[in-house]
Amino acid sequence: xxxxxxxxxxxxxxxxxxxxxxxxxxxxxxxxxxxxxxxxxxxxxxxxxxxxxxxxxxxxxxxxxxxxxxxxxxxxxxxxxxxxxxxxxxxxxxxxxxxxxxxxxxxxx
Length: 109
Hints:
The chain is α+β, with helices and mostly antiparallel strands. The chain has one domain (24-108). The protein has helices at residues 27-34, 51-64, 68-81, 87-97, 100-108, and strands at residues 6-11, 16-21, 37-41, 44-48. The chain has a two-stranded antiparallel ribbon.
């Protein structure tokens, strides 16, 4: 698999889209994977990233490929998930992965 190590699968009848991501192999990716949640999706067990993990990943992707889409998604996650996001966790990892300014922008919007 070539960078960026991701692909999508689409189930045509329901239009369900699932994104698959290969771990980058760094400390943040392993932490994000460790904190995943088990969910039921179309009557099947699956693993899902936490909202805080997805938000930070959106910010990280924005540094790789700057588009409004990533920041818009991050703001949407913040608006929907607000209190469950653990600000200390977000601040810690934003500093470690170099997205502090982007996180502050999302939290202030």
